[in-house]
Design a protein that fits this description.
472 residues, alpha+beta, Uridine Diphospho-n-acetylenolpyruvylglucosamine Reductase, domain 2, Uridine Diphospho-n-acetylenolpyruvylglucosamine Reductase, domain 3, Alpha-Beta Plaits, 5 domains, five-stranded antiparallel sheet, 15 helices, globular
Length: 472
């Protein structure tokens, strides 16, 4: 039988297919990193080419791994078993725009921020905005159900996807819509990390740009008091568009790099965004400042203009990159806890980092309890590498114990698959496995992702066990 590479070349041509060693090396990792090379890479321009490539991979018994911009932090795009990588860098267009109904149809390789930039003149925007929005693709965002700072008010990617086109394991093209009767297949595919099918088009919901936007910064003596203020704000029924916290370590790093105007004499800063009518924004700021000061805010100020507002957001979204000034490497966790547990979990994270002799910086979407502690280390030191792995697992276990979960927006991917059983029972995993088998019975799409490594023959393949009710 001809090899995967030769069959792909015969069917799609050298302009679409990559087989050179140096080309394959580029697709052997994402932001998580790995050292496994694919057997071949295709860079298609249409769903038809994707479908042809999937059929060839199926016939050759090779797995298929979809890839957006490679910014994923959990190894969702690493070709852990080799096989075929499908890169969507060419399928990056805005295909249709319906301004009146605030809808658009896009290809999966379209960069998140480029969509909002392209439609801003019409007074509309695309709401999901992960910190990587300048480079991450909408297809990748769909794969992980990405969120971002504005999740508090706008929700995650799944709240803005109206339908999908996808290729199944047989190379057949299907289309879904949330308007369809019956099962919500669109919702099933969002967040599935490429394990159920290869998404080739996305119908998205767009929102009207608000009349006014105000960004404010409050300084607090510590992360705990800032977290308590966030809980009080939401508890009072106030829902700003964003509530973000950075601790002192992160604030110093972003100020050294961006010079955005964050106060450096505080233990933590709270970044608040309010949007709506001019009157609502003014009233909202007054109420928010009152609550913040009641919970220990040392200062409160609003950005004077759009330039200053954009600078504050650029610094916040560039926080992870700014860590390069402190150490050569960082490991970022992604977990969620109830807002009311934020002060306690932040204290616990500091203790875990201290126990492992690791600096930790905290920058997170406080409004929805989505934590992103950055453990700072040097990977050239084996002790530090092991300490980071151990501390990261302890942080996840701590978040679960406080009523949280192991991922807010980065997905499970390859990195977190072994921790999925900390959240879900054997029966839960078996039910998920049955869903996967309906879409991809050969399990050729993105293997080794999401499910624990033993689940292929264990939990996921196990029959669902009926529990006998306890005696009354």
């Amino acid at each position: 039988m001809a090899s995967l590479a030769s069959r792909l070349l015969d069917a799609l041509g050298p302009d679409v297919v990559r087989t050179a060693a140096e080309d394959l090396a580029v697709y052997g990792f994402d932001a998580y990193s790995d050292n496994t090379l694919p057997s071949a890479v295709v860079v298609p321009s249409s769903a038809r080419e994707v479908a042809a490539a999937v059929r060839i991979a199926r016939d050759c018994g090779e797995p298929v791994v979809p890839r957006g911009a490679g910014t994923g932090l959990c190894g969702g795009a690493v070709p852990s078993r080799g096989g075929l990588v499908v890169s969507f860098s060419r399928m990056n267009r805005l295909l249709e725009l319906d301004v009146a109904n605030r809808r658009a149809r896009v290809q999966p390789g379209l960069i998140n921020l480029e969509l909002s930039n392209a439609i801003a003149a019409h007074g509309i925007f695309y709401a999901p905005d992960p910190s990587s929005q300048k480079i991450s693709t909408i297809g990748g965002n769909v794969g992980t159900n990405a969120g971002g700072p504005h999740t508090l008010s706008y929700g995650t990617t799944t709240n803005h996807v109206l339908g999908l086109e996808y290729v199944d394991g047989d190379g057949t093209i299907h289309r879904t819509s949330i308007d369809d009767c019956g099962y919500d297949l669109t919702g099933v595919l969002v967040g599935s990390e490429g394990t159920l099918g290869i998404v080739t088009e996305i119908d998205v919901r767009l929102l009207a740009l608000p009349e006014a936007v105000r960004v404010c910064v409050a300084a607090f003596p510590d992360v705990e008091s800032a977290s308590e203020a966030v809980s009080a704000i939401v508890g009072a029924g106030l829902i700003p568009t964003a509530l973000e916290i950075m601790d002192a370590l992160i604030t110093h790093a972003v100020e050294a790099h961006f010079h955005a105007g964050y106060p450096e004499n505080a233990g933590a800063v709270l970044l608040v965004e309010i949007a709506g009518t001019h009157d609502d924004v003014a009233a909202g700021e007054s109420a928010l400042e009152r609550i913040a000061r009641a919970h220990g805010a040392l200062s409160w100020r609003a950005a004077r203009d759009r330039v200053e507002r954009d600078a504050l957001w650029a610094a916040r979204k560039g926080a992870a990159g700014a860590i390069g000034q402190i150490a050569p490497n960082y490991y970022i966790q992604d977990a969620c806890v109830p807002r009311t547990r934020l002060p306690k979990v932040m204290h616990a994270i500091d203790e875990i980092a201290r126990d492992h002799a690791l600096p930790v910086g905290n920058v997170f979407h406080a409004g929805d309890g989505n934590l992103h502690p950055l453990l700072i280390f040097d990977r050239r030191e084996p002790r530090q590498v092991q300490a980071v792995v151990d501390a990261g697992t302890e942080i996840l276990r701590t978040c679960i114990a406080m009523g949280g979960t192991i991922s807010g927006e980065h997905g499970i991917g390859y990195e977190k698959r072994e921790t999925l059983s900390l959240v879900f029972s054997t029966n839960d995993l078996a039910a998920m496995g049955r869903v996967r088998d309906v879409f991809d019975p050969m399990r050729s799409f993105n293997p080794d992702k999401i499910f624990p490594s033993g689940a292929a023959c264990g939990e996921v393949g196990a029959p669902i066990v009926e529990r006998t009710p306890a005696p009354a």
